[in-house]
Design brief:
Length: 388
């Protein structure tokens, strides 16, 4: 194992109806809250009203900011920053999925920084402080409710960058699986793909010995494969949504990759696709990750053959490691197809004429991305060609 530090301060409140208690949990921690969300369904379903009533019942002032969209926009972050400053907000409450949470985290940083918050996403500056952030999660998948990450799209320059910092780890996250049960199947499928992609990124490591996390990751992947199928067959089952919601949180809260390197090359590639064409992140990952697997499998056939035997339960008898690797990749594709996800950029109606530009933006100022295999510009273009 590698050396590591691990701290996670997020208080998780899990269960039915807990969004109605948010005011109680914020007493003594917030005087004025920015409720940040997107989508009329939060108003129509009564979720927003329950949150507001809870804050009012605890005598906590609030102001709202609607407008979150998938691949959250930098322009909305700027607007949120001004509201926080003008209204003397001291707590940002995200209501929604990963986009609302990431946007809230960025607003929290921006409100406490004199410069341009985009400096943090380009790596020019490191965030030193932020307003406190909380979450009422309604869409499982991104795992941002317990992570130190925020990913924002700069729509002017068509760039999608992320920042990791302990100052934006949420103080509290409310996880009520009931809130997911009216989501359309395509959003659930995208969430499942997102969760698996977070587990894959951690599984494909160059660390030689990380036995505990190998078993934890393999168990989590098997569970998510099973849960995804069950939810698609029984979309009103509370217990399945509870399992999915918790698996999304665990997949991205940092506990499963302590003491090992993770890859993240596939995520950098997908971010450029969604920055340009606004595809939902999980749908993009279902296209990119199998292509990445195909391209890098010979870097470590042992890892891929273990994925085949331990996760997809393919017998190793009579198969070479290369054949097992190919079967693991095919099983991954088959599973995403089973969920109703597209397997290529063309079938997802994503243009395929800007691969060179995507590769340049994915690299930014670096020569390589990824760790399992260090990918240069030509490698990235080749993976995009495989995803075509």
């Amino acid at each position: 194992m590698d050396n590591f530090n691990f701290i996670n301060k997020t208080k998780i409140v899990f269960g039915k109806g807990e969004e109605s208690n948010i005011g109680k949990y914020l007493q003594g921690h917030a005087k004025k809250v920015l409720i940040h969300y997107g989508g009329g369904y939060l108003e129509e379903s009564g979720i927003l009203d329950r949150i507001i009533q809870s804050l009012e019942g605890s005598k906590i002032d609030y102001i709202t900011l609607d407008g979150v969209v998938p691949n959250p926009r930098l322009s909305l972050v700027y607007r949120g920053r001004e509201i926080c400053r003008d209204e003397k907000v001291d707590f940002v409450l995200a209501v929604g999925g990963g986009s609302a949470i990431d946007s809230s985290k960025a607003i929290a940083m921006a409100a406490e920084y004199d410069g341009d918050v985009w400096d943090f996403f380009t790596g020019m500056e490191e965030p030193q402080k932020a307003l406190k952030v909380g979450v009422v999660l309604t869409i499982p998948g991104a795992g941002s409710e317990m992570s130190e990450s925020s990913i924002i799209t700069n729509e002017v320059d068509n760039l999608k960058y992320g920042v990791d910092s302990p100052v934006i780890v949420p103080e509290i996250s409310i996880l009520n699986p009931e809130l997911c049960m009216t989501l359309p199947s395509n959003l659930i499928a995208s969430g499942v793909a997102d969760i698996l992609s977070h587990l894959f990124e951690r599984y494909f490591t160059t660390t030689k010995t990380s036995i505990v996390n190998d078993y934890l990751l393999e168990g989590a992947m098997r569970a998510v494969l099973d849960i995804g199928r069950k939810i698609m067959g029984d979309p009103k089952n509370y217990n399945y949504y509870a399992e999915l919601m918790w698996s999304a949180t665990m997949a991205h809260n940092g506990s499963l990759d302590r003491g090992r390197t993770s890859d993240w090359g596939s995520h950098r590639i997908e971010h450029e696709i969604s920055a340009l064409y606004d595809i939902t992140h999980g749908k993009g990952m279902a296209i990119v990750f199998p292509a990445w697997m195909e391209y890098v499998k010979n870097e470590n056939l042992d890892r891929f053959s273990r994925l085949a035997t331990e996760v997809f339960k393919i017998s190793s008898h009579s198969f070479t490691k290369l054949e097992l690797a190919d079967q693991a990749i095919e099983e991954t594709r088959r599973y995403f197809k089973e969920l109703g996800l597209e397997l290529s950029l063309t079938s997802a109606k994503v243009p395929t004429d800007k691969f060179e530009d995507m590769a340049d933006k994915a690299l930014g100022k670096s020569k390589f991305i990824g760790r399992f295999k260090r990918l240069n510009r030509e490698d990235i273009i080749s993976i995009l060609q495989l995803a075509k």
